[in-house]
Amino acid sequence: MTKILRCFASLVLAAIALTISTVSIAQEAEDSGPQPAWVDLSAKERKEVLAFAEDYKAFMSRAKTEVSFVSEAVKIARKAGFRELTGKSDLQPGARFYDINRDRSITLIVIGSGDFMDGFRVVGAHIDSPRLELKGRPLYEKEGFALFQTYRHGGIKNYQWVNLPLALVGHVDKKDGSRVQISVGLDPDDPVMIIPDLSPHVDQDFRERLNRDVIGGEELDPIVASLPDETHSVSNAVMTYLQTEYGIEEDDLVSAELALVPAMAPRDVGLDRSLMAIYGQDDKLSSYAALRAIIEQGTPQRTVFAFLVDNEEVGNVNNTGAKSTYLVDLMSELIYRRLGDAYSDHDLRRALRNTKVVSSDINPGIHPTWPEVWEAGNAPRLGHGVNFKLYGGGFNANSEFIAWTRAYLDDAGVAWQTATYKGRASGGTIGNSLSKDNMEVIDYGVPVLSIHSTYAVSSKVDVHLLYRAMKAFYQYEN
């Protein structure tokens, strides 16, 4: 019996030892895995990351649409010595210009010391974000409320836009050529608009709706007012207010670009303040990083561009989207200005062939509650740096360009990772539009949670690393 007990005890001890060994190995493997980029930062670098984040949040509190992004970007650019590109601009090395396309996209340029035909360096990103826009005849009255009819710019989950404060921002263009700016709801003292949800006491007939159909697109109409005028009309009271406050008639709303955006200010997330919740980070995040990166250029070897463009969320369309000829036309103009009558289309085509592009956009990061939507080895993680987008299906940058990109990121000490969607191949953002002109293009960005929602979450260190990546791209000479 004693011998049996000893044998049993030995087996138990062996099992415990094996368990401890297994746990130790697993812990060691976990410890040897990728660590957040914060870990490798010096105290000075951490201060730089936090200061950059404060600048970013302040900018995003003002830049709610592509038009306001452009106006805010011009302020920053002019302080950094950029001037509007004109027919008389002197294209000397080191000269700094900006060019605005119809108020809705902007390109910043620093002239390099080399030949234009040796190619340009371009960082491209988009400055429009998912939102609600007013229809041409938006105002109507129902059940004692005045409401606005809306439609959606970009893909959203409708239910995320109810029960939260909304600001009305944008402008109205009048027949006499004047423009009226409107912003209601961003100032803490302003009123806000809201799309109220059904209370749980009365929603029984709607509980079978699934996911994105919980709120229908035509149900995203915010309350504008509820106090009638002397004619007992709430909608008339609204028009009287618009006429008195802004000089706007109802027909003027047909030639308006008015959007409803979340009225919440950017906020830090987490007790450690390492994350940020901000509306519109898709993709003003990349665009702001590009803006900051280019204003810090001296005189580069190759002429550099920050191409910050509209309408990506609806397919890169219209003359302010990436499918427009605007960027190629701008490059052609620069080459013509330098060569004069000796210019030929061959010069432009040679420049395009030698141009390198970073198409930057955010993408979903691995989620702590639903990690299974990613393959862990191909999932980008918040706080781990820039991620290459490896789409597959012919959408990837070629391997040579990926290797070249790895080289300058490693030289600059920029942490990077990869992102490949699970079970499908696709290519997004503005990169495929630019590659059609035979430019060398790679897509990279940083991971963000709750993309296309009213309050997306990013990591402060990722935003700073993206800016550093873009600076390194502009300056790399190999």
Notes on the structure:
With 478 residues, the protein is α/β, with parallel strands linked by helices. The protein has 2 domains: 40-129 and 279-475, Aminopeptidase (3-Layer(aba) Sandwich), CATH 3.40.630.10; 131-262, Aminopeptidase i, Domain 2. Helices cover 31% and strands 22% of the residues. It is built from 10 helices and 20 strands. The protein has helices at 2-31, 43-60, 66-79, 234-246, 281-295, 326-339, 345-353, 399-411, 431-435, 460-475, and strands at residues 83-84, 96-101, 105-110, 121-126, 131-142, 145-153, 166-173, 179-184, 223-225, 256-262, 267-269, 275-278, 304-309, 356-360, 363-364, 386-389, 416-419, 440-445, 447-448, 456-459. The strands form 4 sheets. A 9-stranded mixed sheet has the order 1-2-3-13-4-14-18-16-17. Strands 8-7-10-5-6-9 form a 6-stranded antiparallel sheet. Strands 11-12-20 form a 3-stranded antiparallel sheet. A hairpin with a 5-residue loop joins strand 7 (166-173) and strand 8 (179-184).
Radius of gyration: 26 Å
The termini sit apart by 77 Å
Tell me roughly what share of residues is in helical segments: 25-40%
Calculate the mean pLDDT score and round it. Answer: 92
Based on secondary structure, the structural category is: alpha/beta
Under CATH, the topology of the largest domain can be stated as Aminopeptidase
How many separate helices? 10
How many domain units? 2
Query: Approximately what portion of the residues adopt beta-strand conformation?
Result: 15-25%
